[in-house]
Amino acid sequence: MLHPKLAAAAAPTGLRAARQAIATIEFALIAPVMFILLSGVYDIARVLILSSEVNDAANTIAITASGVAVANADGTVQITYSQAQQALSLVYAEMPWVRLGIERGARSATLSAVSYQAVSGACTASATQNCYNAVLGFSLAYADSVKVASNTPGNATSFSNSATRACSASITQIGPTDTYKTGQTAMNTLRTDNVTAPDAIMVADVSYTYTPIYHFITGGTVVLQHTVFSPLRTGTSAYVGGTNAAGNCSGNPTS
Amino acid sequence: MEFALVSVPFIMFTLFVCEFTYGMFTQELLDGALHRAIDQMRGGYSATPPANAAGFITSFLCPQFYGLLECDPTRVFINVTPVAQGGDFYSVFPYGALPVSGNTLNLSNFQGASAYCTPAPEQFYEVSAIYIGPTFVGYLLPNILSVKTASGGGLPPVVHATLSTVGFAAENFPQQSGGAATCSTPS
Q: Which of A60, A83, B96, B101 could disulfide-link B106, Cβ–Cβ 3.0 to 4.6 Å?
């Protein structure tokens, strides 16, 4: 049993009770701010990582498709539907949270082929003379709806609704396929001037729409989009082999 | 009294932020490092290929961390999975998620000779890497920010594991002799 003086000191006086109440109110004021700060950090981090993954996916798809596709003698691109779909499916290897169904935003993955056809008649390439027209060969969306519907319950979103590029006899720019950027300046201009026998290119478009936690404050969704194109390199080798057995580099060019 | 009220949630908050930002930092580093490391797989090794997963991790993956993360074969585990021609990366292990069995990280596919092989030209592969790091509040939030590990594996009982996956088609390169066995071609 406490001494009466100690008991009196321990008992909540009006002043002590008031200070405790203030502390509680202070914490109640700070806690939501802390929570909002934390979720804001999460939002920014996720969108940065997803942006990086979208870039990686577009790069990987374009590089892979351009390594698998074959250039025909007339400059057109030859790739099977199965090969194109497999290249597009790399988007799932690059975006694990999308594969897992954690990220369920609208997404698109499209593979297109652009070949160059010589203009009719004699032509001398110059800075002002185009001797080739860039022609869209095909534009395919990743057809994953069956897999998504059967393997990821509840995840109805798939890449199958991706916007494809419109067929055109002659294109001059490789811009994004997404309608949200329609009317904006295209990201890359296809050079058809002053070039001779250009290689066909594979174009990969990948986009993902991220919805921030506080989208009602930030003003909507964040669309992450990346377009990459890569020339065909069938028959070439990326191997950068070392010296010969003797190590004297005699196999290297001498001039 | 005020400090006693605020300190516990504040420390929890701080540790949670540490855990979360560490996870994001590790994810970004692992993604970038794995992409750069598999360039040699994609284009063909310029020297004798590594003999096993440990060789790949030590010689190719770890240098890509630029010293920002502690890296060695006891912390990083990789798996190389061949993918059939015409196959779909949607259906390739580890399906975008950490391989967890019974609330425990299952590294069986990431260990042993079968986890690693030397890619063959013009074949498709998926390479997965798992980085094992420390956990800050993982003991309080198991299976959310942390994962348990199997006993006897030399790992802490609860860790922060990060998964990264990369898919690619190998170029038409001339194969180097030596190193680990060439990956089998799935039908």
A: B101
Which DSSP string do the residues of A171-211 spell out, in sequence order? B-EE----GGGTTSPPSEE---BT-SSPPPEEEEEEEEEE-
Task: Give the integer Cα–Cα distance in Å for B90 and B182.
Answer: 24
* Residue B30 predicted with pLDDT over 50: yes
Give the pLDDT confidence of B120-157 residue by residue, as tens digits.
998 999 999 999 998 888 777 766 778 888 887 788 88
Take residue A189 and report the two structure tokens written for it. Answer: 């201009």
Structure tokens at A198: 């250009």
Q: Which residues does chain B have within 8 Å of residue A157's beta carbon, measured at their own beta carbons?
A: none
pLDDT value of position A4: 63
Cα separation, A252 vs A243, in Å, equals 8
Among partner residues B88, B91, B169, which is closest to A64 by beta-carbon distance? B169
User: Torsion angle of alpha carbons B70, B71, B74, B80, nearest 10°?
Assistant: 150
Cβ contact B163:B128 at 8 Å: yes
Q: Which pLDDT band, with edges at 50, 70 and 90, does A146 fall under?
A: low
Mean pLDDT (chain A, rounded): 74
Give the Å distances, CA to CA, from B67 to A197, A224, B28, B87, B110. 45, 30, 14, 36, 23
Nearest to A86 among B87, B172, B173 (CB): B87
The pTM of the full predicted model, rounded to 2 decimals, is: 0.82
In chain A, whose CA is at the least distance from the CA of B30?
A49
ipTM for the assembly: 0.89
Cα B138 to Cα B159: distance, rounded to the nearest angstrom: 7
